[in-house]
Please model this.
Amino acid sequence: MIYRHLIAPPRAFTQFSHDIIRHPRLSSDAVRLLTWQLSLPQGARESLSRTAERARIGATAFTRAKRQLKEEGFVHERRVQVPGGLWVTQQLVSNVPLSPGEAAKILARTPAAAVPEPAQRPVSPQVAPSRRHPAVGVPTPRRTDGHPRKDPGENTSH
Model:
């Protein structure tokens, strides 16, 4: 017989439906990805892939989890073109399964995020390659000093 003792945390907690936690067709990675996304603060715009990195869900497991969430209606995506010609992917995460039509209505009300101008985009730090040092010794030219010093006739069976 199992006994459970629970104390509600005083802050920083989220309540989830048992339907999410016990969903028969969602893997533990899919449930973790979904609950992590739903626990983010209101207005947070963290992508599913970034959440998977933070949750230490590997690439293959993430792909499988995302596919499961999309198949069950918890995640929907659409690609939109923003001013300047760039395409962005909008992701909708829901705590209840949504049909594609319901998700499309919600996403249609959501403006595409403005993409910063090229001069304003954060630039990833570029690091110059370090000087290469050979593992052992220094490079040397090929030896070309002619014939072997010993007569090869001594080593033949003829």
Remarks:
- Residues 18-109 form a domain with the Arc Repressor Mutant, subunit A fold (CATH 1.10.10.10).
- The beta strands are 75-81, 87-93.
- The helical segments are 18-21, 28-38, 48-54, 59-72, 100-109.
- The longest strand covers residues 75-81.
